[in-house]
Amino acid sequence: MRVICLDMEGVLVPEIWLGVAAKTGIEELRLTTRDIRDYDELMRHRLKVMDQHGIKIDLIQDVIGAMGPMDGAKDFLDELRTQAQVIILSDTFYDFAKPLMEQLGWPTLFCHYLDVADDGRVAGYRLRTTDHKTKSVKALRELNFITAAMGDSYNDTGMIQAAHVSAFFHAPQNVLDDFPGYPHFTNYEDAARHLLTAPPRD
Description:
Layout: E1 2-6, H1 16-24, H2 39-53, H3 57-66, H4 73-83, E2 85-93, H5 94-103, E3 108-116, E4 122-126, H6 132-142, E5 146-151, H7 157-162, E6 165-169, H8 173-178, E7 184-185, H9 188-197
Parallel strand pairs: 1-2, 1-5, 2-3, 5-6, 6-7
Antiparallel strand pairs: 3-4
Helix pairs in contact: 1-3, 3-5, 4-9
């Protein structure tokens, strides 16, 4: 059995924080894991900026509610799920992802949790574990699954390196330059064929 592990933002849905930055006009929120490799550093930056500008959870949820999956993303997921198990491994938060998961047909999602104060201020966050994408793929390998992984950012490179079958999807050039040798796809049809049929490497 093959288990396919996908990043969420940039692969299935638009980058949430880019949407928040566009809605608020705060350029500092445009930074993503494509720009900053250290996720803890990135989230500390986001929380600081949100506090400075008084941004609360309801505004972010409004932005997310107005977003939808990328064109073709649901069909892509549906096709994969007819032939393999699919898990979305994301560094987003359950508080953010629910409306998008509904639009994608409720795929399995592993992500993190926010700490939200009574007044709606995002006070912090709780990781399920550090580097959970890589650890998830390695655990699936230990269970004798053939693993496939695809993402677009620095925080996806661990699972991409750990999987039997790997690819980047719409990744920026700086990520591709730093991690050469992996297939890079810009459409779902070719990506699906690779994830489902490429022979596993050791």
